[in-house]
Amino acid sequence: MSAGDYWYLFILIPAAVLAVFVGGAVGIMKLQRMSNDAVSGAGRSQHVLRVGLPTTARVLDANDTGTRVDRIFIITHLRLQVDAAGAVPGFETSIDVPLSPVRLPQFAPGQIVKVKVDPATHHVAIDQPRQ
User: Fold this and answer.
1) Most buried of the four, 27, 62, 88, 116, by CB within 10 Å?
2) Is 115 helix (H, G, I), strand (E, B) or coil?
3) Gap between the Cα atoms of 79 and 82, Å rounded
4) Rounded distance, CA 122 to CA 60, Å?
């Protein structure tokens, strides 16, 4: 037997290493997306946007939490005075939302923003597209 009898190993070993590397990279990207969704509260917000009642809210206070999502969106802590919606009376609440730096002025104190309110839990979600 000579070294030439094992030529296929020169293809299989690098291919296996490449497959492991690509699989690991995809796994890391999925974990990053799950982490971003957890930080931004995406699951609860999506539920509220589906079942919530539309209304408006006045921004009372807005603070940067120091957390970023996808190195672009700033997780901002908003204190809101939510207007009445259907059978839900007006109330004050705080939420953390991912905001583009371009849209930060729209969420300055005193601004009116569109929101949806879950009538069962009073959870609030910003009713504006995330761009």
Assistant:
1) 116
2) strand
3) 9
4) 18
